[in-house]
Every structure is written in C-alpha cells, then in structure tokens.
Design a protein that fits this description.
Blueprint: E1 24-28, H1 29-33, H2 40-72, H3 75-87, H4 92-101, H5 103-108, H6 113-121, E2 124-132, H7 133-142, E3 148-152, E4 154-157, E5 160-165, H8 174-184, E6 191-194, H9 200-203, E7 208-211, H10 243-269, H11 272-281, E8 285-289, E9 306-309, H12 316-324, E10 329-332, H13 337-342, E11 347-349, H14 354-367, E12 370-372, E13 383-384, E14 398-406, H15 422-427, E15 433-438, H16 454-469, E16 472-473, H17 478-485, E17 491-493, E18 502-504
Parallel strand pairs: 1-2, 1-6, 2-3, 6-7, 8-15, 9-12, 9-14, 10-11, 10-12, 13-16
Antiparallel strand pairs: 4-5, 14-15, 17-18
Helix pairs in contact: 2-3, 2-4, 2-10, 4-7, 11-12
Length: about 500
C-alpha cells in the first residue's frame, strides 16, 4: 500500500453500513469512535486510581505543558507528557487492572453513534489510537469486539512503566499509516474513519474514507445497543475527570475527608434514634419509604425479623438501622477491621460453612432482628446479583428492603482497593443520599413453611426488590464480579493469627 494525497472526505453519515459483514474497518479512537477528542480524563482516571490524589495533582499541573506542546510543537510531544506524568513508576499490572476494571464504564458512555453504526456493521474491526495500547485494548476487544488494536507502546523496566514510549513513538499522523501498512501488508482495508487532518494519511490507505465531524450535541450510544452490558466496574470516581472536575476533586479531597470523619463519628457515637437527624444536619440525605415492622417483643420461641436487603455499599445495614431508629445486627461476608471498629451496629462474619452459618443466624434471630444482604457483594449498576438461598431456610419472618443510594463524586465500594476506606469515600461525597424502601412482609404461603423451596423464596424476593427499584435480575455471583474486576474469586486468606480462615470479600 502507498499513502495517497490528503483530500476532503465525505462525512460519516454518508457511509452505508448495510452488507459490510465481510468488510474491514479502521477507526481512530478519540474524536472518532469516541465523541470526546481529549484523552485527559482517561489519563486522570489512571492517575487517581493507581497513584492517588497527589498523582492526579501532578498530572493536572503537567497538562498545560502537554497542551502547549500539542498545539505548538507536535501532537506526539503533548501525548508523551501525559503518558509520563500519568504512568511513570506505575506497575504494569496496575495499569492493566485499571484498564480492565475502571475505564470500560467511562469509554462505553462516550461512543459516537455514527462511528459505532459503521464500526459494528463490519466483520473485521481495527482501531488506531495515540493512547497507550495497554490502556484501551481491554475495552475495545472485550466490549466492542475489535480484532486489532494499534496503539502507542509504553516502555517498561522490571514490571514498571518508565513513562517513556517505545519505538516508533506515539501512534499519530503518518505513524498511523505506517502501522497500518505493517499490519495489513498489501491488503487494503475497506473503510477508514477519522476526525482530523492528521488522520488523512491512514484514511487514504482505505478504499473508502469518512470524516466524523465534531458535534458536541450528539448523543452517545445507549447501553441497550452495546454488544456487551457492563454490569461490574471498579474505581473510586463517579464522574469522568475533565480538567475542571479534576481540579474540583483535588480541592475538595481534604475538606471531604474531614467531613467524612465527622459524619462517621456522628453515626458511630450518637444514639441510633438521633443518627437520622445528625446525618441530615451534616448533608447526608436519608429517605424512607414504606412502613417498617414494629420492634419485636422478646419472648420465648419468638424469632426476630430478618431484613433482606439489596447490597449497594457496606453501609446498607447502618442506614437500615438509621431508618428504623434502632441498631440491627448484620451478617457480613467480610468487612475490614477498621470498618468493624467504626460500625455502630453489631456485625457477625459468615464462615462459609453452611451448617455453622445457619446455626449462627438462627441464634442471632432468637436475640432480635437481623439484616442480611444475600447478594454477597455490592453492585453499582441497576442490577441485582443472584440471592443466596440459605436465609429462606431459617425463618418465615422475612421483610424485603430495597436499598438505593446516590454519590456524586466518589464511589463507596471497591473490588481492587482497600475496603477500609469504603465508608470514608462514601461520606466524602458533598451530599450523599440513601433511599430505604420497606416492602411488604413475605406472605406465609410464599415461605419455605408454606411449601416453597428456598431457591424459589430467594428468587421471588430478588424479583420483588428489583421491581421496586426498576432494576434487572441477574444470575451473576460474587465470584463473577471478582473474576471480572480483580482476577480472583473474591476469597481473602486471613493471616495465621486469624486462625487461617478464608472469608469472602464484599
């Protein structure tokens, strides 16, 4: 193949996407496959998730230098500054982990509808990008079905990124055309999509070339049109960190941490009937729907109520207790020692031994009310994971509770990070909110004593809670989540001092 002369290309809306099953498409990423032209937000996600707030600050301070180089020297020089500021010294395994668990969520909500229409219609798909290949490959191949990803290769030393790039440098301009020639040889791709003049060289190598004009008002591809739904994702940041948002996060972080400490202290030290009002005075919104059951009367043979909750954060039992105005004991799969220490309610860990756990839960119900989150782990998206059926075998006094929350800046859950920080990150949001909806008590005829199997009971309650929240039921489990986000089964092996028990991570 030889590089043709740059010329005007028609816009992508004029590209026919019918009958392209045997065609090959080559697409630029930023500004073409994605609506946004700036890759800063995705570098910022890496900076914060791996290096924390100080690395994000360093990247933000370096970004004006990158911008000056980009516009007055070369696109390549500007991108190299972003790569160095973000990745220098990072473990390659951490980069791969963030690329797999964090970035797909943000990339998926920024797909350009016209580019996606053409890209998804072709049988063979290739993506060219100036971004590091390791940064984008997991999303492009696992979620969009890309066959080939050609991007900048980062230099590494002893498992860590040096911050520099490998030969032939950043994949921009004619480097894209050269990489395309090297990949396809004498074969000519059918369709090339780009969004700027520097894409002309590789577009000229294709039989057809189309430009994707910059239109800020264009709406992204909806979740329903994606080939693979993103159920699980990780990372602390809720919003895509544009330069302005990154600055706000940096300025708010120390204030938010101090505010979180005050909110946690109020929840841990005040009597439970006062916690609801303390939270509201400190900007934590708690909304209660439905009628909670009355406090149980202690008597011989009387069992407490078992509250079955959807699982959004490890704070679910605490906000349930806040809504009830009294502390309710909680059965957990695993929480950090710090979270146990700070918890204003009693928490009891499951052992993963079915007989022992059943005996323990029965004993706790004899002492009073109890709350369980049978999903076994949290899910951020509007889905409910599969409910474990053990609880249905132990009591007929079951009240489903639909838990929903809102966070504007930080997620209060993690699969890869230290779980001890989960409550802090939740309360670091300027105005976090929880919505607690008490649903009707499970009728006797739908319990195990009424003739239903434990799995039928668990599935019924899952559907009832999902319907209340307008969520979707799934058969995914805790293992599915941790395999997707952390590459393990969610099993944490405690130290020998803790009797060598294995516990499940929430």
């Amino acid at each position: 193949m030889s590089v043709g002369s740059p010329h005007r290309f028609p816009t992508v809306d004029r590209c026919n996407s019918i009958g392209r099953e045997k065609h090959t498409v080559v697409v630029d990423m930023d500004g073409t496959l994605l609506r946004g032209r700036s890759s800063f937000p995705y570098f910022a996600l890496f900076a914060f998730e791996v290096g924390g707030i100080l690395r994000l600050l360093f990247l933000l301070l370096a970004s004006p230098i990158a911008g000056i180089l980009y516009y007055f020297v070369s696109e390549s020089a500007g991108i190299q500054v972003l790569i160095f500021a973000t990745m220098a010294g990072m473990k390659v395994s951490d980069i791969e982990s963030v690329a797999r668990a964090v970035l797909p969520k943000f990339y998926s909500v920024d797909l350009h509808p016209e580019s996606w229409r053409v890209f998804s219609s072709c049988g063979k798909r290739c993506v060219l990008t100036a971004n590091p290949r390791v940064m984008v490959e997991a999303f492009l191949k696992d979620y969009l079905g890309a066959d080939i990803v050609i991007g900048t290769e980062i230099a590494t030393y002893k498992g860590r990124a040096t911050g520099f790039v490998r030969h032939p440098g950043v994949v921009v301009g004619r480097n894209k055309a050269t990489a395309l020639c090297k990949t396809f040889g004498e074969t000519t791709p059918d369709v090339g999509l780009g969004d700027r003049k520097t894409d002309f060289p590789f577009m000229s190598l294709c039989k057809e070339g189309y430009m994707v004009p910059a239109k800020p008002e264009v709406k992204a591809v909806t979740r329903e049109k994606l080939p693979k739904t993103i159920v699980f994702h990780d990372g602390r940041l809720v919003q895509k960190p544009t330069p302005l948002m990154a600055l706000i996060i940096i300025l708010w972080f120390p204030i938010g941490f101090l505010l979180a400490c005050v909110r946690i202290a109020a929840g841990a030290l005040l009597p439970m009937p006062l916690v609801y009002y303390a939270f509201w005075s400190l900007g934590v919104r708690v909304t209660i729907h439905g009628t909670p059951p009355p406090r149980p009367k202690k008597s011989i043979g009387h069992s407490g109520v078992l509250f079955i909750c959807s699982h959004r954060t490890l704070l679910d039992p605490i906000f349930l207790s806040t809504a009830l105005g009294r502390p309710i004991a909680a059965v957990t799969y695993s929480v950090s020692r710090l979270s146990e220490f700070l918890s204003p309610i009693k928490t009891v860990r499951l052992t993963r031994d079915r007989a022992r756990d059943a005996s323990m839960i029965k004993k706790l119900l004899e002492e009073g009310d109890l709350v369980i989150c049978p999903e076994g782990t949290t899910c951020r998206e509007p889905f409910l994971l599969r409910f474990s059926a053990l609880f249905a075998e132990l009591t007929d006094e079951i009240v489903p509770v639909a838990m929903a929350n809102r966070m504007s800046m930080f997620h209060g859950t993690t699969a890869r990070g230290w779980k001890g920080m989960d409550p802090f990150y939740f309360f670091m949001n300027p105005s976090p909110a929880y919505e607690v909806t008490f649903l009707s008590k499970l009728p006797y005829e739908l319990t195990c004593s009424g003739g239903k199997s434990s799995h039928d009971v668990a599935n019924h309650i899952q559907r009832v809670i999902a319907s209340s929240l307008a969520y979707e039921c799934t058969s995914f489990t805790r293992k599915d989540k941790y395999r997707a986000l952390a590459g393990n089964d969610g099993i944490v092996t405690n130290k020998p001092a803790e009797n060598g028990n294995k516990v499940m991570a929430c």
